[in-house]
Design brief:
Layout lengths: L5 H13 L3 E3 L1 H6 L12 E8 L3 H13 L5 E4 L8 H9 L3 E6 L1 H4 L4 H15 L8 E3 L27 H4 L6 E4 L17 H9 L7 H9 L6 E6 L8 H23 L1
Helix pairs in contact: 1-3, 1-9, 3-4
Length: 264
């Protein structure tokens, strides 16, 4: 199967389930409602999706997950490539969690008070479609602003938000996987989508795979940790050959730019 196709994504999820992993949303992780204590294993994978662009791709991954009885969290940006009401409604109707993929500090050029106001406006907007209770930062690698800095002054929990993946996940217990860079070891070229305090430790333990096929083999061999957060960007996953090749070329160019950005 071609990597980053919908076919191999389904195979990845099926392999996880065959090995006893429960596939849950981030809110379920925080509430511990998606982790069944009656199972012989407490293995789980938090399925997190950052909907950066091509929102209709997200509906396809959501449909695959729903067909397997899995729950996932989908985080939508304010831009039109991500913010597609019909897609948001359809994914929510499948039983998945909807969240706000915020980048307010970047959009407000670092003005923290303006960013807070902007955040509240858009949180209210997304709550038209779903009772949003978790949020997730958009990395915005070309921006000098880290949107998590908004929380140095303000507290999202005052708005009924129960968690943010980078701030409310116990990464001493939960291993982090992301397809940033269109590979599974993309933390090497990532500006913000990584967990610096644990990344070296995980790499030293051999917990690093490049392709989805390698990741599937690691799961089959029992090498994947018991508790995982897995982040994907559905824009990358498609069975359409033309779209697949375009994404491949585009991401390779982005990776080169990000490498230069990190060096400088």
């Amino acid at each position: 199967m071609r990597d980053f196709s919908l076919d191999i994504y389904r195979a990845l999820l099926e392999t996880l389930q065959e090995k006893g992993y429960q596939l849950i949303s981030f809110a379920e992780y925080l509430r511990k409602t998606g982790i069944s204590e009656s199972r012989d294993t407490d293995r789980f994978v938090i399925l997190r999706h950052d909907v950066d662009a091509k929102a209709w791709n997200s509906l396809k991954t959501a449909q695959i997950e729903a067909s397997l009885g899995a729950k996932a969290s989908y985080y939508f940006r304010v831009g039109k490539g991500s913010n597609v009401p019909e897609v948001i409604r359809s994914i929510a109707a499948l039983g998945h969690e909807i969240g706000y993929h915020y980048e307010d500090m970047s959009l407000c050029d670092g003005d923290v008070d303006k960013a807070w106001s902007h955040f509240q406006t858009w949180l209210s907007y997304f709550r038209q479609y779903y009772a949003v209770e978790t949020i997730c930062m958009h990395g915005a690698p070309t921006s000098k602003w880290d949107s998590k800095d908004l929380w140095k002054k303000y507290d999202y929990k005052t708005l009924g938000i129960i968690g943010e993946p980078y701030l409310d996940t116990d990464f001493s217990d939960v291993f982090y996987l992301t397809d940033t860079g269109r590979c599974w070891d993309g933390y090497k070229v990532s500006v913000r989508d990584k967990i610096p305090q644990y990344q070296d430790e995980w790499t030293q333990k051999g917990l690093s795979w490049h392709t989805t096929e390698e990741l599937i083999k690691a799961i089959e061999a029992g090498d994947l940790p018991k508790h995982v957060m897995m982040t994907t960007h559905p824009q990358r996953w498609t069975n359409n050959a033309k779209a697949w090749y375009l994404e491949l070329v585009t991401q390779n160019v982005k990776n080169i730019i990000k490498k230069l950005w990190i060096k400088n």
